[in-house]
Design goal:
- The structure holds two protein chains of two kinds.
- Chain A is α/β, with parallel strands linked by helices.
- Chain A has two domains: 167 residues, P-loop containing nucleotide triphosphate hydrolases (Rossmann fold, 3-Layer(aba) Sandwich), CATH 3.40.50; 73 residues, no CATH class.
- Helix content of chain A is 35%, strand content 25%.
- Chain A is built from nine helices and ten strands.
- In chain A, the strands form two sheets. A six-stranded mixed sheet of chain A has the order 6-7-8-3-9-10, sandwiched between helices. A four-stranded antiparallel sheet of chain A has the order 2-1-4-5, covered by helices on one side.
- The radius of gyration of chain A is 19 Å and the shape is globular.
- By secondary structure, chain B is mostly helical.
- Chain B has a domain of 228 residues.
- In chain B, strand 2 and strand 3 form a beta hairpin.
- The longest helix of chain B is centred in the C-terminal third of the chain and has 30 residues.
- Chain B is globular.
- The chains are: A alpha/beta, B mainly alpha.
- The interface between A and B is medium-sized, with 39 and 28 residues.
């Protein structure tokens, strides 16, 4: 661990909601270029952890260091520009815009920064942004839908669009919240292939996932979360053989 | 979308410019070609276009836009009083002052969204209206309204002869058609700016805020400055419209800021089609035209109109319909508005879109059938 580059360093993060201990003393290090999966039963605190990372929630204590910079207290848009981008579980797309516009908006964010008053240039002149958006959409198999109204797409397509919106920003760290939930089998496999391709390009990722098939095909390291605590961390093989994990999460089932 | 989309902005501008400048000709058949009404169309058109930049693009519904209208009028009249009777500085200062007020009101109101934003803007508008009536009388001349007088400084104009001077554009008197054409020019400029904003990256970002503001924040945008800029632009459009109201008749009163005036622009925009380029202008045209016709009608006129009916029926019909004309014109407006909102939530523009879609299907129908029968053979 000491030689490699730590992108995200979560230290002693605690979060309670009322009396509920949602996150208890979480410590996590993510290495550059690796895919780290966080698994755990429902209500284990997986989404809470992601929300702390992207600034939607402020933890009671602890630090989240991204590339050496503490993210606690920063605005969501600042965290985005630092290079940590989240792909949402329930599609948070722009339903009133066309598919390609949905992808062009995050591309504009990357180029224009937090605020830019470009009211007198024309969208029709944004060839580079449009090409880039088209490229990402074709990569995800949405090439035929570019001009469709995003709100009227199927749920699976919305999930992929959501992914495209994250990818076009070329994040330093991509947080994926159940990227394949609600997808048909062949769509899931397609998404796995795509995420593998992204991994080859060296993008660091955190994946929250229920589907063990997805987790074991993609993850370099896995952390198991149960009742707000990390009960095990390690390589897929270590996790597979860990009796504590089998009991807490997998109910003794064979993996 | 199904209206033949004219992709070239310059073609749109050319058509729009010609349509506005020839309005006195093509509005003649419906009797709407006198300068007073035409000028009203242009001024409220600017007001609605500006309102649509805020409401149509970002979804933030302001219920206090009449403040900027009033501010524009007062500023213009003060420009006539202190500087010159030339309308150009009046319009420039009116627009700028609208912008200044929009920065102040927008900065506070945009801390909230949805209904709370609307209520905040309404509160500001009513506050300004009451202040203009009472405490600010030295600036607004209270109930009487602000007017030009013989004793005004007018430091750029020099001494005047007998009687009140009239407003001019470098010597050209701003009355009748010259007044209309000045307003029409401003309308064309305003429409051009609005068109550019709609088609720009900035406009796309505003539409994205309307569609999903939360997502915009996680996409890396600080949405507050975007909203404030949209608010200020639309405030400046309203300020411009307000100052134009004072150019033919240099008079400004507090009633221009009343909430009914703010409500009217909301009605116009929704009636025509929120978020479309042309919709708000159609809304203005419809409301101002019918207001003109219906509010001028009286019972005698109705009797004449329904004279073909038997007397007993005529009396009933006139009794009922007289409630909808003259003073009761707002009843007609209310019914019209309800019908549009219930059956055409996208306004008149949606009606046009649906009609063209139906027409296109009908004209396509026979060809399709012919093609299918050929395929079978």
């Amino acid at each position: 661990m000491s030689e490699s580059n730590i992108v995200l360093n979560i230290r002693n993060v605690n979060k309670t909601f009322g009396g509920l201990h949602a996150l208890g003393d979480i410590n996590l290090e993510i290495e550059e270029g690796k895919t780290h999966a966080i698994i755990g039963p429902n209500g284990a605190g997986k989404s809470t952890l992601l929300n702390v990372c992207i600034g939607r929630l402020v933890p009671d204590s602890g630090t989240v260091e991204f590339e050496g910079q503490n993210m606690i207290g920063m605005q969501p848009h600042e965290i985005n520009h630092a290079g940590m981008v989240r792909v949402f579980q329930t599609p948070e797309i722009f339903p009133d815009l066309s598919v390609i516009e949905n992808v062009m908006v995050p591309a504009l964010a990357k180029r224009d920064g937090i605020f830019k008053f470009n009211a007198f240039s024309s969208m029709a002149g944004e060839k580079q942004i449009a090409d880039e958006a088209l490229h990402v959409l074709e990569d995800l198999g949405l090439g035929a839908l570019v001009n469709q109204h995003a709100g009227s797409m199927s749920r699976g397509d919305k999930r992929r669009l959501e992914l495209a919106m994250g990818l076009i920003q070329h994040p330093r760290l991509l947080l994926l919240d159940e990227p394949t939930a609600g997808m048909a089998r062949h769509d899931t496999n397609r998404t796995i292939d795509l995420l593998k391709k992204i991994k080859e390009r060296g993008m660091t990722k955190i994946i929250i996932e229920h589907d063990m098939h997805v987790v074991f095909s993609l993850a370099d390291t896995i952390s198991v979360l149960a009742q707000g605590c990390i009960i095990a961390s390690g390589t897929p093989d270590e996790i597979r053989g860990n009796p504590k994990v089998q009991e807490a999460y997998l109910g003794g089932a064979e993996l | 979308m199904s209206i033949p989309a004219i992709r070239n902005d310059w073609a749109v501008m050319a058509i729009f410019t010609v349509a506005v400048l020839t309005a006195p000709l093509w509005l003649a058949p419906i009797g709407a070609n006198y300068p007073d009404l035409l000028q009203k169309f242009a001024i409220f058109g600017i007001f609605a276009i500006g309102f649509n930049i805020l409401f149509g693009l970002t979804g933030y519904l302001s219920f206090g836009h009449a403040v900027f209208l009033g501010v524009g009028s007062y500023t213009a009249v003060w420009s006539f009083k202190l500087l010159t009777m030339n309308v150009l500085p009046a319009v420039v200062f009116g627009t700028l002052m609208g912008g200044v007020f929009a920065v102040l009101i927008g900065y506070v109101s945009l801390r909230r969204s949805g209904i709370y934003f609307s209520i905040l803007t309404l509160a500001f508008a009513q506050m300004s209206y009451n202040l203009a009536y009472s405490v600010l009388t030295p600036i607004t001349n209270g109930e009487t309204g602000l007017q030009i007088t013989m004793n005004d400084a007018r430091i750029l104009d020099g001494p005047v002869g007998d009687g009140l001077p009239s407003t001019t554009l470098f010597g050209l008197e701003m009355s009748g058609y010259s007044g209309f054409y000045f307003c029409a020019t401003m309308l064309i400029i305003a429409f051009f700016i609005s068109l550019r904003i709609f088609r720009s990256p900035f406009g796309l970002k505003l539409k994205a805020i309307k569609s999903n503001q939360t997502r915009m924040k996680y996409t890396g945008f600080n949405t507050r400055p975007y909203l404030l800029v949209a608010f200020v632009i639309s405030g400046m459009f309203a300020g411009l419209a307000g100052s134009l109201m004072a150019i033919t008749d240099p008079l400004a009163g507090a009633e221009r800021m009343q909430w009914t005036a703010s409500g009217e622009v909301v009605l116009m925009t929704i009636l025509g089609g929120t978020g479309t380029l042309i919709g708000p202008l159609l809304g203005v045209g419809i409301i101002k035209y019918f207001e003109n016709i219906f509010s001028a009608l009286n019972e005698a006129g109705l009797h004449e109109f329904f004279a073909f009916m038997p007397d007993w029926l005529e009396n009933i019909v006139v009794a009922v319909s007289s409630e909808f004309v003259g003073e009761g014109w707002h009843l007609t407006l209310g019914v019209l508005f309800m019908l549009v909102v219930i059956f055409l939530p996208g306004g008149v523009m949606e009606g046009i879109r649906r009609t063209t879609a139906v027409v296109r299907n009908l004209s396509k129908g026979p060809e399709k059938k012919a093609a299918e029968s050929v395929g079978k053979e």
